């Protein structure tokens, strides 16, 4: 997990977190989290619920914390840290990589290439990376990085009715969606938990879903895991993929409980069928990404997107994710402050 580190002293995360590595400018290690963002993502993915803590979707999973930011204002080009972090995660044998952060500023060709190199190495290793699209849907709707690059599975957020969250960034890069509102996270004042929202939490839920499916089918490849996830979603109404929720809202219960989904070809990426790591390929699942834009306001929630909201499958679209897979509460991310000032944003 590439994030702000993980506080593994919390009851629900004891024994769930491996020794990681710090690639940020912060002197403290990957198992220290001064922001709390990475800790919340880890809890959503693998929290055990011990001592009244957060119950994650995949409590049998282990989290490898790879610190890429501190969660506080910083300066500089973040892409070298990302590249090192991606390579480290691959070297350590990570199979599902969660990236609940996005870069929303313009990137040089070299910086973009560094990110693409990292994604290529992840995919070449047989792993899969899920990246949040960001929380700018109500404002600038910036197509950030690396979620808009080939090889990254871009994740959007929906509310409890299965409709796209107003803040969720939208566009052709969106591949999958998951609940991203009313998710329990640790309160900033250090006591109890608070409901939070953002595509960060949606991304963590999708990552946990992949971990559950892969653990049940360990011989499947990353392509096969992704394919059945795409096949078993609660589909959007109208055009598929939707620019708001992509191929739909993930429903791991459809695979784990009902045995649905055809894994298909082991060596063909179902989202980027022409994607060959290390070679030029289409930049998004359906069309080129939007041009680079400068960073805008911090993540916040508000008005409806410019176009009509995405149509989630109204009924049980986002509820089946919780049925029979050990989730005790609706799980999402709260007010994401800027990290790597004016360049990288927590999502």
TrEMBL record:
Active site: 3 (charge relay system), 37 (charge relay system), 200 (charge relay system)
Keyword Protease attributed: yes
Alphabetical list of Gene3D superfamilies matching this protein: Peptidase S8/S53 domain
TM annotation in the entry: 320-341
Keyword Transferase attributed: no
Region described as Disordered: spans on this chain: 18-37, 267-318
UniProt xrefs under PROSITE patterns: SUBTILASE
Keyword annotations of the record: Hydrolase, Membrane, Protease, Serine protease, Transmembrane, Transmembrane helix
Domain of life: Bacteria
Domain Peptidase S8/S53 span(s) in chain numbering: 2-248
Family designation: Belongs to the peptidase S8 family.
PANTHER family: CEREVISIN-RELATED (PTHR43806:SF11), PEPTIDASE S8 (PTHR43806)
Designated name of the protein: Peptidase S8/S53 domain-containing protein
Species name: Streptomyces mordarskii
Lineage: Bacteria, Bacillati, Actinomycetota, Actinomycetes, Kitasatosporales
